[in-house]
Specification:
The chain is mainly α and 79 residues long. It has a domain of 55 residues. Helix content is 71%, strand content 0%.
Length: 79
């Protein structure tokens, strides 16, 4: 398995800066909404395990953003 480095994540960083003005809290909110909405998909259309796996992956990504930018968020919400 290939290991990720900072350069591999450059496009993701650019996307967040360009589309969310660098506001990781907004991105986190959108990821949380996606996880919430996935629970309302028809189970016949998409398998239950597919939904669970997708929700798990999105939630883990969301947690990574949270931990990486915790101080920035704390400052943002305390102002």
């Amino acid at each position: 398995m290939k290991r990720l480095n900072t350069e591999d994540l450059h496009e993701l960083k650019e996307h967040i800066e360009n589309n969310y003005a660098g506001d990781y809290a907004s991105l986190s909110l959108e990821l949380s909404k996606a996880v919430y909405l996935l629970h309302y998909l028809e189970k016949d259309v998409i398998g239950q395990y597919d939904i669970q796996n997708t929700c798990f992956a999105l939630q883990r990504l969301n947690e990574c953003f949270h931990h990486a930018h915790y101080k920035k968020w704390r400052e943002q919400f305390n102002n």
